[in-house]
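Reader question, answered in our methods column.
A reader sent in the components of a multi-part assembly and asked whether the whole thing could be modeled at once rather than chain by chain. We filled in our standard form and ran it. Here is what they sent:
COMPLEX SIZE: four components
ENTRIES:
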Amino acid sequence: MKIKTIGVLTSGGDAPGMNAAIRAVTRAGISNGFKIKGIFRGYDGLINNEIKDFTTENVSGIINRGGTILRTARSSEFETPEGRKKAYENMRSNNIDALVVIGGNGSLTGAKIFAEEYDVCCIGLPGTIDNDLYGTDSTIGYDTTLNTIVECVDRIRDTAVSHERIFFVEVMGRDAGFLAQNSAIASGAEAAIIPEDSTDVDQLARFMERGIRKSKRSCIVIVSESPKCGALYYADRVHKEFPDYNVRVSILGHLQRGGSPSAHDRILASRTGVGAIEAIMQGQRNLMVGVRNNEIVYVPFLDAIRSDKPFDKKLITVLDELSI
Amino acid sequence: MKIKTIGVLTSGGDAPGMNAAIRAVTRAGISNGFKIKGIFRGYDGLINNEIKDFTTENVSGIINRGGTILRTARSSEFETPEGRKKAYENMRSNNIDALVVIGGNGSLTGAKIFAEEYDVCCIGLPGTIDNDLYGTDSTIGYDTTLNTIVECVDRIRDTAVSHERIFFVEVMGRDAGFLAQNSAIASGAEAAIIPEDSTDVDQLARFMERGIRKSKRSCIVIVSESPKCGALYYADRVHKEFPDYNVRVSILGHLQRGGSPSAHDRILASRTGVGAIEAIMQGQRNLMVGVRNNEIVYVPFLDAIRSDKPFDKKLITVLDELSI
Amino acid sequence: MKIKTIGVLTSGGDAPGMNAAIRAVTRAGISNGFKIKGIFRGYDGLINNEIKDFTTENVSGIINRGGTILRTARSSEFETPEGRKKAYENMRSNNIDALVVIGGNGSLTGAKIFAEEYDVCCIGLPGTIDNDLYGTDSTIGYDTTLNTIVECVDRIRDTAVSHERIFFVEVMGRDAGFLAQNSAIASGAEAAIIPEDSTDVDQLARFMERGIRKSKRSCIVIVSESPKCGALYYADRVHKEFPDYNVRVSILGHLQRGGSPSAHDRILASRTGVGAIEAIMQGQRNLMVGVRNNEIVYVPFLDAIRSDKPFDKKLITVLDELSI
Amino acid sequence: MKIKTIGVLTSGGDAPGMNAAIRAVTRAGISNGFKIKGIFRGYDGLINNEIKDFTTENVSGIINRGGTILRTARSSEFETPEGRKKAYENMRSNNIDALVVIGGNGSLTGAKIFAEEYDVCCIGLPGTIDNDLYGTDSTIGYDTTLNTIVECVDRIRDTAVSHERIFFVEVMGRDAGFLAQNSAIASGAEAAIIPEDSTDVDQLARFMERGIRKSKRSCIVIVSESPKCGALYYADRVHKEFPDYNVRVSILGHLQRGGSPSAHDRILASRTGVGAIEAIMQGQRNLMVGVRNNEIVYVPFLDAIRSDKPFDKKLITVLDELSI
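And here is the structure of the entire assembly that came back:
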């Protein structure tokens, strides 16, 4: 089957650069003779037929904007066979021959299942702030969020130093410590507490032995969000053990998702968006487009969503040596 | 008594622009023949004799930095007669003839009591993000914090729109709604909940009647922090009444205090710092230096710390009319 | 005549906050029962009938964006009686009863002439980065541009210090030194060269006597743009007199106009936009809406466009004392 | 010879992240038992004996600051055998056993010659905004400068769109188009004119055929700085051929070098700084530390300074397809 029309959607948590990716898919598609349709609200929009023809105008002036003009959602209906059936029927009735899905782990898992079930062409772009997709050096949104966190911690440092306080700053990344570890290095924080390390070591104890007592001056610890052991938990522990310490907590929360994307994320989104159209033209399907070592790579869905994206343990040494 | 040496300190919550103020007092003082001494950690440093000679070099390269190189603290000891006695003795033993205090309401109240008790020359600069000092159009730090909040809400708006959620965003200003009301106007928020209005009106109910139901699309409500009725309280109420609404909370917290000061705050700090030295040269004392209508003004401490800085109720109309 | 429909346009050089002003006029107008029409490309759009009905949707999501969605232009045709006649006829044929003009000195002068010639209701909003309109504490765009300049000079300072160079940085403000003088104070520059001072004093000579020779370290001089005596002229003079100095020039240029408006400018635009609608409802006409001393004021066009907006000479002292 | 003391210097054009690199070398060095000496003003400081003992305190609070606390310079004396002899003698008299040089192509070439001539251990860190060093995915400063340019072009876009103008924006990168090509992609510019392409193609002509005539709307062309063919040259050509086009030029200049480094550059500087100390501990020498594919790599000087860092021609296609 010759592909003539491509649908594009964003799914899961929004990430800065998703708009740049939508723009790239749309314009590279049109540049190469395809028709483009925008699908609103993720897989739900495919199920509910919220689909609109896209021209180059629809994506004009959005490369520098956070969020996603296509809106996004986590679809529970698409997890059911009935939901995917409706989605497929709407694809057919809208003459959509291929789907470009911009999203994270869960969204690409959905694309994989859908592609296998109905034998359709699905291409994924790595759109998530968590950087937890395998096979690409970074994901669209990760660099911007890292910069946002570092900018916030720079601000918190001003007040931490002025008042000589200990701050526990909680950042996103429930299952992946990339944001926490790297923002700790970049902001000159004294420690990071991350999921990769937490099963077998008491990271707070190790840090406190290493020197929280050395001085009463300011100190910043970055903590990956966690259902049980977030920043509040650790602040409480320190407070109990050292009642005279001046401990504060800051939970950065949703502001980490927004904002104008960084140059890096705009370029990554532009290159992978063009790469998605090239993949379709080459007859490829059911894979994620990434960038490794400055080159476009195609990663089969199965590999991309592997849960074991390697975390470089040397980054822990880097932080330890630099926070003396 | 001819004043030869001036001590400068920062006190209370840190505010962006305090460093610009320290620089201005130091350099304008030296430009006019005074000796300057930096006092560390607020009034506590005066009590504990943490005092250091300052040259123009000490304040070089700090105009653009958040926080305060003099550190700051809230001193409970200075609230006691014994504490103030020690402070006075250290002033004398360090040959400090006049004191410039950069701080908010509580810090200037302390300066007023001290000045009266020991008949010393105290000049205040309005250094607080809360904008709650009377007699000056704005306070050092307020404009920067307003910009920081608006930048954060711009980011939250990206994710609120993408996911079509209702956000309650909590900002600083326990006793003054300047930050909440003005950041709501500036960020295009749908409503603000502020202390000035909260005693007699149920602001959330009024807002919800006005239209939260009109659409299911995104919506942002800015809430002044409050011991009882913060963003969590209001989010909970909405969630109970409309269980299908997608409600989220973001508490901006300490990052509101930090960051490089805005142009406005650096200029305000520079002008009032020069104004403080001029006041001393004119033999004035025990007043706060402010800017009204683009002119330097001297405001007696008693007036500056009045608790009734007027809140312009028309700003509520502005927000109401623009959030349709 | 009862006013039912209001046209809004932006004219002259674009300024950050113009979109916030368009939004405020549109929404406050609709909130109060008016019909709003957007006029594109300034007075040219009125002459060429580029006019479109505006709803609240048209101004959604623009409060934080630089530039103007209505586009802008300097119209030479509107300076002719024929041009204004066409403009008036289009106003009538579009049933536009009143005009809100967002622009600077030239644009409000045009509004004044037009209002007098055809006896129509014109309200001006002070939209210009130059801050050269009389009767308002600041103009929409001025605060943002000041922050942009200061941010740029902070960056230039990094490289000036690292290489120990003398920089001449040229900023906008051909006829008004507000931007140059205040950005010099805010960025901790060593000197400013401004039009207000330039007729009778050789500002560079005065500065160089004051101390450019004192040290070989870095130094930044802010220069108001000028057809004859811009940054290049002064750099050349210094270079000739001190050939071993390491002199560089940076002309900030058009990037000073763009960017997301500051909180201050968004609030000013929102308040004056609401104020414009209130003025129309009160039957007022042919005046500019400004803010003085935190209060809305109405300034007759004749006063607003006076060329003598006072420049506070004390700011020169502030800079001199702080750049030691 | 066992290495006990390490000297660190910055050389050539300053780049954001150099301070983070100085901090990393200093702290990782001290963490591993070395003594660290800071050398001021690049190789000139080694020749003139401007050397100071560094503790962890010396590099406290600098990770987020642009420029270099060690100052920098291009040394013509170090290019002479006499200069290098003095440098070597000062190394010996200060007991400096190894040198870490943070700089670009010219600085690492100097290090290579010096290392060979005197058989000393020299380690290079890639500190340059130009990204023109071979063997590392990016150089310290490149990402920050890219973001700065993109932010500036975003601003210029606001005014370009509002006035419907054609802008030629000149950016740094005399010999390498990385900054121009990638900032064009990231800012959504319509074209880039780069040195890699300029010998055999008239890039402006190609661009103008492609569509500058299609519409009279706004348009942005990014131009790599060039002695002959900068932005002014191209603007002039367009102006001559299409006299009714509204053409403007913006030369970004030195502000591209400054500013707080991005998260990416701080992490790159931190990791390579730690890597430099590790290299010394492993007995390695005369190589540059880089990061490829997220891993630390050691690149012999000869390879790093090769002039043929590959430019990915596919980026030209990306820009072409997305600027329709």
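What stands out: The two ends of chain A are 62 Å apart (CA to CA). The CA atoms of residues 15 and 141 of chain A lie 5 Å apart.
Send us your own complexes using the same form.
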